[in-house]
């Protein structure tokens, strides 16, 4: 209990969130994606009626749809309890990502840090929709020749997908640092700069 109290009294929120530690600099990317996600959703809400389609490219429509469920409308037919379940899961997942980012080594994990930042932005973007509107706003509709339609999604969904791909790529191709290697000593300052 005394260790916890000591940690609590020494904890400085500004030191946790200010990007001195390189992986936490990716929080700026998460913030930019989150703002872009919310801005595009507000534009679509302002200019389109529900289910209205605006052809943009031969394979892409902008259309306004509401999703009360998760990905691919999972649990969309439930009576409302799923909204708060998904909000709680998104907040818990976001906290876990923040802790994970904070614990990453200073160098060598940029792909993972970028992936986590994108997942964080997507999770928070859709959670904001659920709290603010009661549903997720989807508007990107990819199709082929008006015969095949991919499930409609938004910027937050795209960020989660790309972030997951980056995290998987990092897991598959990142070489674990061996004891005594340069990567395992990332936290130590390097002395390759000459002093005059």
Q: How would you describe this protein?
A:
This protein has helices at 2-10, 13-17, 27-47, 81-103, 110-133, 155-173; strands spanning 53-57, 60-67, 136-144, 148-149. The protein has six helices and four strands, in the order αααββααββα. A four-stranded antiparallel sheet has the order 1-2-3-4. 26% of the residues are buried. With 196 residues, it is α+β, with helices and mostly antiparallel strands. Helix 3 packs parallel to helix 5. The protein has a domain at 44-174. 52% of the residues lie in helices and 12% in strands. The N and C termini lie far apart (49 Å).
Short description:
This protein has 196 residues and is α+β, with helices and mostly antiparallel strands. The chain has a domain at 44-174. It has helices spanning 2-10, 13-17, 27-47, 81-103, 110-133, 155-173, and strands at residues 53-57, 60-67, 136-144, 148-149.
SSE order and pairing:
Blueprint: H1 2-10, H2 13-17, H3 27-47, E1 53-57, E2 60-67, H4 81-103, H5 110-133, E3 136-144, E4 148-149, H6 155-173
Antiparallel strand pairs: 1-2, 2-3, 3-4
Helix pairs in contact: 3-5, 4-5, 5-6
